[in-house]
Every structure is written in C-alpha cells, then in structure tokens.
Amino acid sequence: QMRLVESGGGLVQPGGSLTLSCTASGRGISNYAMGWFRQAPGKEREFVAGISQKDALTNAAHSVKERFTVYRDNAKNTVYLQMNYLKPEDTAAYYCNARSEYGNYVSTVGYEYEYWGQGTQVTVSS
Predict the structure, then answer these.
(1) Separation CA 108–CA 60 (nearest Å)
(2) Closest C-alpha to 16, from 89, 86, 63, 93
(3) CA-CA distance, 27 to 4, in Å (whole number)?
(4) Count of alpha carbons within 13 Å of 30, Cβ hemisphere only?
(5) Which of 11, 21, 56, 79 is deepest in the core (most CB within 10 A)?
(6) 3-state secondary structure of 85
C-alpha cells in the first residue's frame, strides 16, 4: 500500500504562486507515474498535470499548461506542483495520485490511478 500526503495549499491572491508537495510512504514512487487532479465545488474532478515514471515526461491540462509545472524527486519520494499566475478559477481541492507504470505514459483519467491522497485546498481570492 502507498500513502500519499499533500501539503502546501492555502489562500493566495490572483497572480500569486504556490507549490504543492505530495510525499509518499509505504512504497517508493520511482515505479509510479504521478498525477495531480483537482475538484472545485459543484464541478467534476479534472486532470491537472502528470509526470511519467521512466523519463519524467510531463503532461498538463490546456488550462494550466503555461502556468503549472509538475516535477518529481524520487530520492525524496515526493512529487511537486508549481503553480504560477494563479487565477480564481484555479480554486479547488488538489489531489495527488500514483499509477503503477513502467514507461512514459501519463494517464489523464482518474480511475487509472491506484492511490490517492486526501487533498489540499487551494483558494485564489483577493
């Protein structure tokens, strides 16, 4: 079993930045593709960004592609989501997830991920 714990959420003004962290325990993330999803109140959960297991290739949703960066540190068993130029529409609970994967596939589908964290809230407001 893998346990994922997100941190780094909070309240930030529009245009500001936050970095979310997701630290795993129980298993190392080196054999997993890692992803970030988010869910705003009244909306469906959506893919934000992901990073592959093999070569750390990244994929991001169009709405965040130019503003968010996902990266991983296998030695620290942690994946990060750097969020810049935040907008009010980025307000959501952000979830980290892991998918057992050998290669460079990054799934954008939530049910393909085996492990999920409890989420961290990001609120963008003035």
Answers:
(1) 9
(2) 86
(3) 10
(4) 4
(5) 79
(6) coil
| Token pair belonging to 82 | 């750097």
Q: What is the secondary structure of 53-82 as a DSSP string? A: SSS--EEE-TTTTTTEEEEEEGGGTEEEEE
**Who's near 79: CB < 8 A, 6+ residues apart?**
21, 22, 29, 34, 36, 51, 70, 71, 72, 73, 96
Question: What backbone torsions phi and psi does residue 109 show, to the nearest 5 degrees?
Answer: -110, 125
Q: Report whether 62 contacts 12 (CB < 8 A).
A: no
**pLDDT tens-place string over residues 38-56:** 999 999 999 999 999 999 9
The vertex-94 CA angle with 89 and 98, nearest 5°, equals 140
Structure tokens at 1: 């079993």
The owner of tokens 């609970």 is 93
